[in-house]
Input
Amino acid sequence: MHRPAATGPSRSAASHGLTLSGDELWQPDSAQIERVDELIRGYRREVVTGLEPSVRAHYPELLEDPGGEYRKMLELSTKMTLVGHACCEIAGYPYDERRRLNGTLFGCCCFLADSFIDDFGPDATREYLERIELLLTTGWFDVRTPREELFYAIVSRLFAARDVLDPILRQAILLLFEAQRRDTELRLGDAIASLPRRELLTLLRLCARDRSGHAITVLTGFVAPEIELSLLPPLFTAGALIMHIDDHGDCFSDLRHGRLTYLNQVRNPAATLRRIFLEHIARLHAGLPANDGRDLMVAFLTRYFLTRLEKHRLERKRSDSAWAVYE
Amino acid sequence: MSAAEPLGDVIALKIQELRGRQSTARPLVRIDNREATANAPFQFDTAEACLHRNGCCAIPSGSRTALYGLWQIPPQARAFACPTCRPGDDDEDEMASDGVKDYVFGMLSVLDQFGSVIRERGREFRESAEGRELTAGLDGLYRNLEDRERATLQVVLNSLDTLLSTVAELDKSFDGGRSHNGNGAASRNGDGGHS
Output
C-alpha cells in the first residue's frame, strides 16, 4: 500500500490469460476497468484540493516538488482514495465527501510516515519508530520540522475524524506499526544474512502481507464507521496482494537500494506474482459480499496488477528510474 | 496561524506544546492497547479467517502477527470458530473499559492535567484577532439560527452545564482527601498553576 498507483494502457484481464479453472466470474469487464480509470482521474483532482491547503500551511517547501516528491504523495493519496472507495462500499457505506477526504488524508499520512522511515538514514529510521511508538502510547509527538508538522496535523485530523479508540481500528493501527517495525528491523539488522533461504522467503512474504494487510484495515477503519469482523480476512487478503504487486513493480529500484522483498528474491517473480494474484483474487471474490465495493476492488487489483507487470518489464529495460511509469 | 491553517490543526499542534509544561509526564491519549488485546479471551486470525480461544495450539505461527483480540464473539464470527478450541459464549468477558464512566474520568483527567493552561490559552486566544473573528462568527451563527434550533442549542448548553456541575461534584466526592493528579498535591481542577 505504500507506492503510488501507476496506470498504463487499459486491457482486460482475459487478454492476459488470467483464468481461474471452473470460475471466471471474478474477471472485470472492460467497463469496470474503465470505471477505475475514470475514478482515478477524478480523485487525482480531488486529492490536490484536499491536500494542498495543508501542505501550503505546514510544509510549503514540499510544493516546490524537489525530486517529484509532492507528485508521488498525490499519486499515493489518489490510490488510497480509490482503495478507500472500494473498502467503504464493501463495508456497506456510501463513499461520501468526508470519507473520501479521510482516504486521502490516510494516503498522505502513509507517504510521510514511509518517508521518515526510508529517506533519512538508519539512525533517523530508528528514532522515528521510537517517536511514533511514543505517539501511539502517550499521544505526545515532539514536532521538530515542517514535514513533521504536516504529518502531525494530518494524523490529528484523521484521529479526530473517527473514534480512534474503536477496538478494531486501534488494534489495526498497532498491528500496522508492529509490521512496519519488523520490516525495518529486517532491513537494518544483520540476522537476515544468516537465514536459510526458505526461512528468509517465508519471513519476507509475511512481512509484505502484514504491512499492507494491516494498512488496508486501518484505511477501512478511517473511511467506514464500522467494520464487520467477517470482512477483515478478505480485506487483509486484498492488502497483502497490493503489497506483492507493489513490490514486483518496484523490484529493480528496491534491489538498487539493497531492499529485499519476497518478490525480488523468488526465482521466477512474474510467474509467482501471477499465482499469488489468482489465489488472492479467488479468496477475495469468495469472501466478500457481492456488491459494488467488491467489484471495484477486483477491477482495481486487476488493473494494478497489469500496470505493475508492465512497469516491471519497462524497468528491466531501463533500470535507471525508480518511478518510471506515470500516466 | 497562517490564513489557510485550519483551527483544528492549530489546536492539535498547540496541545503538543503543553507537554513541556507538565510537572509530571502523563499520557495525553493512549491508542496502544497491545497488552489488553494480548490477554483478550478470543483471538481472531485475519490471515486464516479463524476465531480461536486465547492460547489455542491451532493458531498457525504465521498468523501470530495478524491476530485481533476480542472480548465477545459477534454473531457473524461464529461461522469462523476453530474446530480445535471451539470458542464459545462461556469465555466472553468485558473489555478493560467501562463505557460512559471512562468518558467522565477522561474529562476529569484532562481538566486536572491541563485546566490552568487551557484557561490561560483560552483567554489569550479570545483576545487575539483569530479569537475575535471566531467569536463574531459564532454570534452570527447564533443569530441566524431558527427559533427551534436556538431552543435545541439552549437545551444542549444547559445539559452541558449540568454535566459539568455533576462532574465537578463527582470530582469533589472522588477526591475526598486523596489526590488523583498523581503528584501528591490535592487536585485543583484547573484553578491552580501547573508549572
